[in-house]
Write a structure and sequence with these properties.
Length: 402
Amino acid sequence: MLDLAAFNSLAPILRDDPYPVYAALRAQAPVFWSEGEQAWILLRRAEVSAAFTSPDLLALDLGDYVRKVSRALAQDPEDLLRLLDMALFFRNPPAHAPLRSLVARLMAVRSQASCADAVDRIAQRLIAPLARDGGMDLMRDFAGPLPQLFMGWLLGLAEDEALWLGTTLAGVPVVLNRGCSIRDYNSANLRLEEAHRFLRDRIAQCRRRPAEDGLCLLVARNDTADQPLDDARLAALASFVFLAGFETTSALIGNGLWLLLHEDGQYDRVAADPGLVPGAVNEALRLEPPIQQVRRRAAADQLVADCQIKAGQQLALMIAAANRDPQAYPEPDRFLPGRAGLPVQSFGAGLHHCLGAWVARMEAEAAMRALLGGPRPVLGIERPAWLPHHNQRRMSSLPVAV
């Protein structure tokens, strides 16, 4: 029997392969209180799915927590706090709606067909060194830059600007991990100061010379709103959109390519039937979700799976466990691109369903098709080196050779 109260998602054993632990916990108690996490742990798809759409569960405000910690230590990570204030997944009504509306309009600035064409062009160009040079790092040189270049295209940035902005922002998501320090907050703030300075200049340029791109549209929509954001907060919103558009998508692409190449026979199966590509991406989302868990706070007393949740208590929605729930997905640990059934929980649901879900799927599918269209690569590693984040499932590298 596992010690449920001592469960801690920061445990090193969960970094490389958390899924056997989740399976054992779920079999013992699908919902339980953890003293280590100071939260209720939800491991089954039914409870996680219901929690995503429950009006009685609120998103946690990480910005409020960072603000309190920083104030206690006489620190002021101003740009980081602005970013967290703009992060949709930390906002609850009524602040959530106007921000979501701005981002939704930005995501619709280009037609889905033009977005798909742009992604295909980027993917084909980035994958070319595999055939030309006989090998490449699919994470560093393909999965990493592809979403950055697409988000740059969407916002109207030059390619070198998009790659610079991606590199500058890449260290920021560490603040989403429980257990990070004030040093992490300050390091992220320095990166954001630089990124926001660049974005404020581009915002001013949009006003001087408006163009038909995402950033200029964002500026125009904001400036005509009833309560427009100032330029500092508008730059923070733009950096949030850029960051949200590449960080987890890069992880998804890398995880999907790893599964495609690692699982026996699946590369050849999908190569022979390209109609399986969307299913293969969906299986990557299910088996190795880029975001492993999210937190909610109970707004009122409630029952969840016969457990009494008190108002103010936190709940950890274990997406990675719910996606492998055998009650929802037969043979849950197998990579089956032809699988049909219930939707995965990787993009959330309800009020906080990811606005860019369609973009992430489109990019991952384009990346997979680009790989399948070239010479058959062979993995250069036996197992991935996962970054040391308890919440994000992302590899540091994925070397392959022809």
